[in-house]
């Protein structure tokens, strides 16, 4: 398959005049979603009511959608299931992993991880007590820090601020050599670049779907458990839909088969319907093409900005193997620069203290969009258009 | 306000020819929902993209919707927030409560509780270790079982099978007298009958919204924390949106103010939009009217069925104070009887081993619906219409 990205671009409903480089925060609306969600509301919920759980396939949706995502992250069929939020899935994976490695007390992560992962790990350690600790090192020290005390590593492959990418295969190999398990957070990987969970022998992975997978605000998360572990993990979040027979209403919990046990409560059917429709776009995409085009776009953006904006300092690694699908620059006035960009219709985002961040999704971003973004940014920097009071007043959510 | 239930009935989109007595499992579609969800998809997500978090008020939606539910359950403004599933909220409330009562090791629940609550409590005890135990007694033994060893009670007010209702005020008073905290599961209470969390001095409450609140399949759950506790609880599920300053991206967790700290991850905006629209119906409802009408409907149904169907044994308490808004009968062939009813357009549901269950929601069920359901059930029993092979083959989900 050769991917036609002009065709995928037409599958999105993008606002006129906007260059949207924030798909790494919230992906845009795929055209197929509105009808699919309306169908779920009116034809399924409205007409089928309670029978929708069977007749409309709602009960199987978390598994069926999980299989569609599995293909994009190099996971085995039947190894991924949808539900909850990424933070909950982090907790669930961590709680399972530490129980599988009962002699050890350390969860290892890095300071480049998304803070919620660290918060959830910290909360779990407090609940576990008994000396469980979150050890956080600098990203470049992760390999060295994996030793015989580590029960599990909790690493986000692609850094949400800089776009720096960890070496999943090497870290996983090192972890296994030291007797540790691995949890990979794919928030900025799934749909951004090829991932090979099975090939890397990853143990667990988690991710969200509202970024590069375009499921919409608050779309459900996913969890991957390697098939070799799936019948061994004992879920800490032992909800009824992860039970072997939920509708037997037994008083005692018995985990379901394989990945099914990672279900917790009732799945969010409307959000799953949106995600299911959003995933149709991927039927037309070869991941190798996506990566090649993403790298071409990010190279083009880096070259353009560096040529025109000497005050912006590249925060993203230049090496292709060491970055995801975003480009970030540092500048002390980053917040105001991003506000000025947004006012001109070039939408990226800002991450404290000084990072402006641009996501490049070949599905709906092309070279023309890159050139426009470069030109607008160059003008803002050359004419100091960011130096206005209205761009410096910080909004509550950026 | 005097409630006009013929007006609320017109606010629902009910399938023609169906008498839907399963709103206690999945509420029907309120007419306002489809447009509101379509607006959230197309106008908010589609046009505002990332700025929807501020411009469309997505970030505040869990709190704003929580306040609308607070009014229905006798909770103080600012004490309820939406998110996750009921099972997750049970875990979150339990983990907070046991930490507030650190000298004690017992979670007390009863065998009439919904199994997922018990499973989640069991999972939490395993994660906590250190002697934490779930003690489960018969529903009628709860009062007696609350002693000085109990850290927290986890009680569902209305039994999902029988409709039996616990005495929230008495149990809460007894728990406090013995130094225990209380968590009330309102799955079959919120929107079913008046609840007075503040008046009962409840400590925590949790509930789902897809039953009597009609939010649709997989609608988000809610959690209540009494204002006297809200700035003291330390969340175990310490997600970034419960942080004091989520967008500071600090490496260390600091809980947000009050109920805000019970947020975890990114809220499900499409499901929240559906719920928000569904709650409009309640602007026209006085809870006292709802209760009076619900009791009249359930009395009418009990009297009609008992007169016509001597083989069905009432499982629901007759005493008004001791029941919710559903009526259940027992029969060894309950499953087949319910299938026969559904085939005739009278939709209730079956709960193993022998319970047929009927929910009565005055919002869209009136005396004519009750009479029709009685007549159909009477004919099925009199003519043994349930005794056919097609009604006895069990589906996967009932």
Oligomer classification = homodimer
Kindly, what is the distance between the CA atoms of the first and last residues of chain A, rounded to a whole number of angstroms?
38 Å
Count of DSSP strands of chain A? 13
- CATH homologous superfamily of the largest domain in chain A, by name? Type I PLP-dependent aspartate aminotransferase-like (Major domain)
Determine the mean pLDDT of chain A: 97
Count the domains of chain A: 2
What is the helix tally of chain A?
15
> Considering DSSP H and I runs of 4 or more, what fraction of the residues of chain A is helical?
25-40%
Largest sheet of chain A: 7 strands, mixed
Structural class of chain A: alpha/beta
Keywords (chains A, B): Hydrolase, Pyridine nucleotide biosynthesis, Pyridoxal phosphate
Pfam families (chains A, B): KYNU_C
Family (chains A, B): Belongs to the kynureninase family.
GO molecular function, one term (chains A, B): kynureninase activity
Structural features:
homodimer; 398 residues; alpha/beta; Aspartate Aminotransferase, domain 1; Aspartate Aminotransferase, domain 2; seven-stranded mixed β-sheet; four-stranded antiparallel β-sheet; 15 helices; globular
Question: How is this fold's topology laid out?
Answer:
Two copies of one chain form a homodimer.
Chain A: H1 5-9, E1 19-20, H2 31-48, H3 52-55, H4 61-72, E2 80-82, H5 86-100, E3 106-110, H6 115-128, E4 133-137, H7 142-145, E5 150-156, H8 168-177, E6 181-185, H9 197-200, E7 204-207, E8 222-225, H10 227-230, H11 269-278, H12 287-308, E9 313-314, E10 326-330, H13 334-343, E11 346-347, E12 349-351, E13 355-359, H14 367-382, H15 389-392
Parallel strand pairs in A: 1-11, 3-4, 3-5, 5-6, 6-7
Antiparallel strand pairs in A: 2-8, 7-8, 9-10, 10-13, 12-13
